[in-house]
Design brief:
By secondary structure, the protein is mainly beta. The protein is built from 5 helices and 16 strands. The strands form 2 sheets. It has a 12-stranded mixed β-sheet with strand order 5-1-6-8-9-10-11-12-13-16-15-14. A hairpin with a 7-residue loop joins strand 15 (246-251) and strand 16 (259-264). The chain is elongated, with a radius of gyration of 20 Å.
Length: 272
């Protein structure tokens, strides 16, 4: 087994450093069996140009108990990290750009920082988002996280932007912080678990046209299935829900409403 460590080369004082990098070619399935010299020649997009991976990242390779890619450094404008990840571990030390873990099918992705828009969303022109594996975000995520997600587990310790779980088909999303507008728009199936449901309750209250409401009326719910998840971050986020009455609402009723949004009743949500 191999550990590939990619350290972003310094950009301080370098006016010619690329503003936007497409790192979606960095894939464990491609790197396995390649020499360091071959990996350094991997073409990577930088401001619309194709450059060598070795020009942007310093690569080191070591033996490891598991196959693991570690990318570290100033990564806010590095997009597509862990795209189509399908096995082993992919660790991002720092805050990732957009499309982190897009199209992921298996394995595990950990972002030790924030992530931009479209986490676990479809990769490129594909129709489906994440379809397997586990994503762990230690910070917050931008808009459209879990868009068109089909399977797998996405955990976000911080907040999420707008359109979380939009057009979701299956899988589980668990968020510890606040969420933006458009939660679960077009959601067909799957589960969204929220430790902070204040915004989704406000959205439901503001929708006064009963025939068009996207959410069903909340009902009491026994979250016994939480015990099936052994991820420490999942247990951390859901800890509060286990101390309070838990409710479930169905969404999005415009497209069948077989998805579920699970949340705890707090004084702020004022569920009665």
């Amino acid at each position: 087994m191999t550990r590939w460590h990619l350290q972003r080369r310094g950009t301080d004082g370098n006016d010619s450093a690329p503003v936007s990098i497409d790192a979606s070619n960095i894939r464990l399935s491609w790197m396995t069996g390649k020499s360091a010299a071959q990996i350094n020649e991997l073409p990577v997009g930088a401001d619309g140009r194709s450059v060598r991976l070795g020009d942007l990242f310093e690569l080191t390779m070591d033996d490891s108990p598991t196959d693991r890619i570690v990318v570290e450094g100033e990564l806010d404008h590095v997009h597509g990290l862990a795209a189509m990840h399908d096995r082993g571990d992919f660790e991002i030390i720092g805050s990732a750009g957009h499309y982190a873990a897009c199209g992921m099918t298996g394995g595990r992705v950990c972002v030790r920082g924030d992530a931009g828009d479209y986490v676990a969303a479809p990769c490129g022109a594909r129709r489906s988002g994440m379809s397997g594996g586990v994503i762990e975000i230690h910070g917050g995520v931008g808009n459209y996280a879990g868009h068109r997600m089909r399977r797998g587990t996405l955990m976000v310790r911080g907040s999420a932007g707008s359109m979380l779980g939009g057009s979701m088909v299956a899988g589980t999303i668990c968020v510890g912080g606040a969420t933006g507008n458009g939660l679960a728009v077009g959601m067909k199936r799957g589960s969204v678990i929220l430790a902070d449901a204040a915004n989704v309750v406000r959205q439901a209250d503001q929708d006064e046209d009963g025939a068009k409401r996207r959410y069903s009326s909340p009902i009491r719910f026994d979250p016994a299935f939480f015990g099936l998840y052994h991820e420490p971050m999942f247990q951390e986020i859901t800890q509060m829900l286990l101390r309070l009455p838990v409710f479930r609402t169905r969404a999005d009723r415009h497209v069948g409403g077989l998805g579920e949004v699970i949340f705890a009743a707090t004084a702020e949500t004022a569920v009665s």
